[in-house]
Specification:
By secondary structure, the chain is mainly alpha-helical. The chain has 3 helices and no strands.
């Protein structure tokens, strides 16, 4: 049960990070489009840009979920043993 909660939290972290990236990229590019649509619009209409937004949103959503899932699966055995107990690092020796 602890492993599933751990991986679920990593998935939520992946979703938060992808939303942050999505927000930064959209604010930046929409500002470029509103300043000079002819130069940065690639000759596409606003309807096409809305379609690009929706497709990009789905791709980023899937990427965030997968990144969180595989990140949780990767870090679980590094932090916990097979019984779910925290692995303590060996103390430093001088």
């Amino acid at each position: 049960m602890k492993k599933y909660i751990y991986i679920s939290c990593f998935i939520v972290l992946g979703l938060i990070l992808q939303q942050f990236i999505h927000t930064i990229v959209e604010i930046w590019y929409i500002e470029l489009l509103t300043i000079n649509f002819d130069a940065y619009g690639f000759g596409w209409s606003w309807d096409t840009w809305f379609l690009v937004h929706h497709i990009g949103s789905v791709i980023l959503l899937i990427a965030g979920i997968l990144t969180g899932y595989f990140g949780g699966r990767y870090f679980w055995p590094k932090l916990y043993d097979e019984n779910g107990k925290v692995r303590f690092p060996k103390p430093w020796r001088i």
